[in-house]
Design brief:
Blueprint (H helix, E strand, L loop, with lengths): L1 H9 L12 E5 L2 E4 L4 E4 L2 H4 L8 H11 L13 H13 L6 E6 L2 H16 L3 E5 L8 H6 L17 E4 L18 E6 L2 E2 L5 E2 L2 H14 L2 E5 L14 H4 L5 E4 L10 E6 H4 L15 H16 L2 H20 L5 E7 L2 E6 L8 H13 L2 E2 L1 E3 L5 E4 L7 H16 L2
Parallel strand pairs: 3-15, 5-6, 5-7, 7-10, 10-11
Antiparallel strand pairs: 1-2, 2-3, 4-12, 8-9, 11-12, 13-14, 14-17, 16-17
Helix pairs in contact: 3-10, 4-10, 11-13, 12-13
The structure holds pyridoxal-5'-phosphate.
Length: 406
């Protein structure tokens, strides 16, 4: 194919693509490639398209904003969509008391900034993260990320102020913590480990993390980059844990496919940074902020968090039924419409090759999916929450037949 050759000749090999299809158009839950093939999208731009591709209300907001101004730069001259979005988030973020926001471009950039904010607030420099964590690909966030290959391979040395303990699947285990808790600026936790394999934090463990932070004056940071904006059944997944973190990191589905990320949290902590200490050229771009305001309206109008629960239930029921007859499905786990199907071999070990075959079979039959997990053996569901019942049924049929191949 001409495009594939052009890519091969001109795009750096380091930027891989999971599916070799070239996209011409994307609407709702469908991706249409340059040959006219239609795919149902279970990747959702890696969890960034909870409102679906080209949602008319989001496109409308983008168009209106583009016709006004595109980039005065908030650092130079501020504008309304940024301020409106910060105001809106302060209202809806599940933290009691006053909250403020600051916006960036990528999830990793927001994670970096949550660390900077935690450092200035506490006057400390150390960071605690967990096994299976994924926080991004910059130097700081690579150090926080767990999986070596491909994210860290050859890119060391990593920062020695990042400490790691076991992911709290059952409870918070501090036995391997080698540092004085009072030198920790923050603990950063994904409520459901995303790239690390769709592993939810145990309910009681989230409370234990909160207590550990309270006892030692540590900032608790929830990385909701992948779990956020309705994916797990509530706007923020932390609502379901009934625990308030101090800071939230948001990105991906906040802006309907445009680059936008942010840190939202307690005003006292957010305001600890000196003026000019955080910011950037494109952070909180007005077009992305306008899209985000439209996304929040769509979340409400179409009750997408509730829809995530329905979708999740249907996926879980289908897979659990299949699991009875298919030995290589070990479990399905997650929250709401963020479900991971775990594929194992005869010795109960993660089976990456088999997972790849399932993935390819689904792709050949019209379903785009991505995998996850430290061992690459988890099939994940990140479909738009606007997926219709018919599309969901059709996609589950494709997924089921792919899961049956040995
Ligand atoms: C939980 C989590 N944090 C941070 C990131 C990094 O976001 P980005 O790729 O926008 O830098 C991701 C991306 O997958 C993520 O899932």
């Amino acid at each position: 194919m001409e495009l594939a050759k052009k890519r091969q000749d001109n795009v750096a090999n380091g930027h891989g693509s999971i599916c070799g299809i070239y996209i011409e158009k994307a609407i709702g839950s469908n991706l249409i490639d340059v040959d006219g093939n239609v795919f149902i999208d279970y990747a959702g731009g890696i969890g960034a398209m909870n409102v679906g591709h080209s949602h008319p209300k989001v496109i409308d907001a983008i168009e209106k904003q583009i016709n006004q101004y595109v980039h005065p730069c908030f650092t130079v001259a501020p504008y309304q969509p940024y301020v409106d979005l910060a105001h809106r988030l302060a209202d809806i973020v599940p933290i009691k008391g006053d909250c403020k926001s600051v916006f960036f471009n990528s999830g990793a950039e927001a994670v970096e900034n949550s660390i900077k904010i935690s450092k200035t607030y506490t006057g400390r420099t150390h960071i605690l993260v967990f096994s299976h964590a994924y926080h991004g690909r910059t130097q700081m966030t690579m150090s926080m990320t767990y999986k070596e290959d491909p994210y860290k391979k050859g890119f060391g040395p990593f920062l020695d102020n990042v400490h790691r303990i076991d992911f709290p699947k059952k409870s918070l285990d501090l036995s391997s913590l080698k540092i004085d808790p009072e030198s920790l600026a923050c603990v950063v936790i994904e409520p459901v480990a995303g790239e690390g394999g769709f592993i939810p934090v145990a309910h009681n463990a989230m409370g234990q993390i909160r207590k550990f932070c309270d006892d030692n004056d540590i900032v608790m940071v929830a990385d909701e980059v992948q779990t956020g904006f309705g994916r797990t059944g509530t706007l923020f997944s932390m609502e379901q844990f009934k625990v308030e973190p101090d800071l939230f990191i948001i990105a991906k589905s906040i802006a309907g496919g445009l680059p936008l990320s942010g840190v939202v949290g307690r005003s006292e902590i957010m305001d600890s940074v000196h003026t000019g200490g955080i910011g950037g050229t494109f952070g909180g771009n007005p077009v992305s902020c306008a899209a985000a305001l439209a996304v929040l309206n769509v979340m409400d109008d179409e009750r997408l968090p509730e829809r995530a629960i329905e979708i999740g239930k249907k996926v879980i029921d289908t897979i659990n039924l299949l699991k009875k007859e298919i030995s290589w499905i070990s479990e399905i786990r997650g929250l709401g419409a963020m479900q991971g199907i775990v594929i194992i071999d005869d010795n109960d070990k993660p089976d990456k090759e088999h997972t790849s075959r399932i993935h390819q079979h689904a792709l050949n039959n019209g379903l785009v999916m991505i995998t996850a997990g430290t061992y690459g053996n988890i099939i994940r569901t990140l479909m738009p929450l606007t997926i219709t019942d018919e599309e969901l049924d059709e996609s589950l049929e494709i997924l089921s037949s792919a899961l049956k191949i040995p």
